[in-house]
Amino acid sequence: MKNLNTKELRYAIKQYAKPSNKLALFIFFSDLTIYALAIAGAIMFESLILRIVCGVLAGLRIGTLFLVSHDAAHDSFTSNRMWNSIIGRIAFLPSFHNYSLWLIAHNRAHHQTPNIKGLNSWSPLSKEDYDGFSTSRKIMERLYRSPYGICFNYMIERWWKDKFFPYKRIVRQQNISYYLDFILVFTYMVSFTIALIYLGVHVAHTNPLEVLLIALVIPFLVSNFLIGVTVYQHHTHETVPWFKTIEESKVYGSNEDVTVHIKYPHWYNLISHNAMEHTAHHVDPRVPLYNLSKAQTVLCELCEEDLITMDFSLINFLLTMKKCKLYDYGNHLWIDFEGNPTSSNTLIVGELDYAEAA
């Protein structure tokens, strides 16, 4: 394994953990503007194709606004805590996320206990878990672990269950902020829906259901797919270990051992706010999204082949989805739905060349 521990790696990239308020505000307002223009186009354009394109674009911008909120929740987007709190809540509105619940599900649960069974997105089931399900639930799990179900996995298993309403199973101690943020999100959802119906009837002079489909449903589905794919790739790979308990993870894993660095083209990193430079983010969440690329470069130079890395391609992605269905927590192997091993022991991590593996 690497010679540097997480604390030493964090020190190596500390120069990038410095927010730039001007750049942060530029990114925030640019995303908001593009999102607003896309929604306007989805309502106003006469061409159905152009309206659908705008709906998809709006969904993509919801995804980047989601990343802005993610950084703001870490208090790393700007240097001002109050600004981060306000920006985070506003940027979460288009994706209908409860800011206070996100602080629990992501900052506390995920970053303190990454790759722990049941506490994280895309937590794999064991064969015993899967075998105990009903037939319909097994079908749903197979759908989730396919390219067609990624959107619904995040939407149902994470957003609806953990990041929208403060159910008692999520928050042991009730806090007024959880409900105030829920009221904020719910009010926005209702107001936005009413506004779309009004604009569709009185401005665009079209079917209000059509407007809701193009300007509300399509963007929401696209954003959930984008978020689901991104989160999936962050911690799912045939060499990435998962753990049953926090104690086990502390013995065998560290943030850089359970995080995948997906090498995307430079242009994608620009439009996605460096969403896939995830190792650097886990080593130090204080590094704002606009500095992640530089920080990741430093980590790659220091750790060389010890980081889990792969070039993005559709083939690589589909191979990962094919191999990573269930997880054998006793032997630390990825397995398929029939229980057949599809990986080597995941406690031995490193770089994998999918081109050779294929």
Quick recap of the structure?
The protein is mainly alpha-helical and 358 residues long. Helices cover 59% and strands 4% of the residues.
What does this structure look like?
The protein has 358 residues and is mainly alpha-helical. It is 59% helix and 4% strand. The chain has one domain. It contains 16 helices and four strands. A two-stranded parallel sheet has the order 1-2. Strands 3-4 form a two-stranded antiparallel ribbon. The protein is globular and about 60 Å long. The protein starts with 5 loop residues before the first helix and ends with a helix.
Evaluate the radius of gyration. Answer: 21 Å
Number of helices: 16
Overall tally of structural domains: 1
Please tell me the overall pLDDT. Answer: 90
**Record field, number of beta strands:** 4
**Beta-strand residue fraction:** under 5%
Helical content class: 55-70%
The major sheet is characterized as: 2 strands, parallel
H/E topology pattern:
HHHHHHHHHHHEHHHEHEEH
Tell the overall outline: globular
Instruction: Quickly give the structural class.
Output: mainly alpha
Give a topology summary.
Blueprint: H1 6-12, H2 21-44, H3 48-73, H4 81-92, H5 99-112, H6 127-131, H7 135-144, H8 150-162, H9 176-202, H10 208-235, H11 246-252, E1 260-263, H12 266-271, H13 278-283, H14 292-303, E2 308-311, H15 314-323, E3 326-328, E4 333-335, H16 354-357
